[in-house]
Amino acid sequence: MTTAFFTVVRYTELVESGNMEPAFEYLGDAVIYNTWLGVVEGKENVINFLRDNIRFLYYNKSMNDWKQVQHSLDPGLSLINGRPFSDAGYDSQGFAMFEREGKLSGYTGFTLSRESIRETVVVKGNKIMLVSLSKRM
Questions:
Q1: pTM of the full predicted structure?
Q2: Which one is predicted more confidently, 90 or 14?
Q3: 12, 83, 122, 123: which could join 96 in a potential S-S bond, CB 3.0 to 4.6 Å?
Q4: Phi-psi region for residue 56, left (φ > 0), alpha (ψ -120 to 50) or beta?
């Protein structure tokens, strides 16, 4: 397990368990949190957002495993030792991106609603820089 992968897994485990205070240590100062509820920028704002919206953690989440991806169209990126990622899990620009897909289900009124979602997390320097949680059609 690379350092970047460990950072993502540990952060999401803490948030999903409701143990928020230790999870905040993994956030970078310029973190951006993007959900269907809106976009929040800055560590203090994200902390307040997560504390205010902890009720959404009670939805049942069924997620696939994390996978490391590279979504860069920059032709200047070079392979590190013939591989796209270093031993720590970062690309040549110092970023690591992870994605997973799954289902979010919960009761709205008397009906069970299920939403397909994709969660994307970007890490730089062992700090979470971007979290994007989007509904899939």
A1: 0.82
A2: 14
A3: 123
A4: alpha
